[in-house]
Amino acid sequence: MGATSASTPSPSGFASASRRAGAVRGPSMGDHALADASPTVLWLDREDRPEAGPALGQTGNGADDAVDLVIVGGGYSGLWAAIQSMQDDPNRSVVVIESGRIAEQASGRNGGFCSSSLTHGLDNGASRFGEDLKRIEAEGRASFAGIRDTI
Fold first, then answer.
1. How high is the pLDDT of residue 5?
2. Which of 6, 15, 29, 99 is most buried, by CB atoms within 10 Å?
3. Using one digit for the tens of pLDDT, what is the confidence trace for 93-111?
4. Angle of the 133-150 helix axis to the 122-129 helix axis, nearest 10
5. Beta-carbon neighbour count of residue 74 at 10 Å?
6. How many CA atoms lie within 13 A of 8 on its CB side?
7. Average pLDDT over residues 118-144
8. Element (H, E) at 87
9. How far apart are the first and last CA of the chain?
10. What is the rounded CA–CA span in Å between residue 89 and residue 85?
């Protein structure tokens, strides 16, 4: 058998490292299947999704002139911090600042994975964090339990 040419796709559709440099391949089955797909994820691509509120200082009613807590980032961590803060003190005024739309970036595109581990395996954690690993693992389990209890 001869060598595979740079223009011949592999059975998996991925070019090997030796064939990638300068190689041009035609459209794959995935390219065809996704040709008319929206770049917006399903749960964000809804007509009933609320529009963003006015920018800070633009309400005209002075409501955002003074707040108790400002959270930067409208991903899961920022939103969860806002919810927990208001649960701790329902009278607390909380503002979440997001450069785009709430939960539209990485959080809104999450595949739903959740894990208590920060270490990519205990051997990796032990080599990187040593004695701190037990505390890190305990904090990860507590965080996971908090997410579970909130959901």
1. 46
2. 15
3. 998 988 887 877 877 777 6
4. 130
5. 22
6. 6
7. 88
8. helix 76-88
9. 57
10. 6
Residue type, 123: D
- Helices and strands counted in the chain (H then E): 5, 2
Burial of 79 (0-12, 13-18, 19+ CB in 10 A): middle
Residue 89 CA: distances (Å) to CA of 58, 84, 86, 95, 151: 26, 9, 5, 14, 20
Residues with Cβ within 8 Å of residue 108, at least 6 apart in sequence: 41, 43, 44, 75
Residue 36 is encoded by which pair of tokens?
Answer: 């008319």
Structure tokens at 132: 């701190």
pTM: 0.53
Tell me which residue of 34, 2, 3, 29 sits closest to 16, measured CA to CA. 3
Cβ–Cβ < 8 Å for 42, 61: no
Both tokens of residue 16?
């090997």
Among 95, 47, 41, smallest CA distance to 71 is for: 95
